[in-house]
Amino acid sequence: MTLDQIAVGEEVKITRVGGEGELRCRLLDMGLIPKTVVKVQKVAPMGDPIEIHLRGYELTIRKEDAGKIEVQRRK
Fold first, then answer.
1. Over the stretch 24-36, which tens digit does the pLDDT of each residue have?
2. C-beta separation of 26 from 61 below 8 A
C-alpha cells in the first residue's frame, strides 16, 4: 500500500521510498525515510496535495509523490 491510499487521521510506518534520481533524494531529505511513522493530517478538497505529520513537523506533498512511498499500518 502507498501513502496516497491512507485515510485522514491514520498513522502508518514507511517501508520503502521509491522514485528515481532527484525526486527520491528530495523525499529522503524531507525526512521520509524507512521506519518513520507518519500521520495523514489533511487532504485537499480535490485530493491533492496531502498534508502529513512526521518527526514533529507538518509536510505537504503531491499525491503523485505520495504514491511512490510504500507504507504499512501500525500494529
1. 999 899 889 999 9
2. no
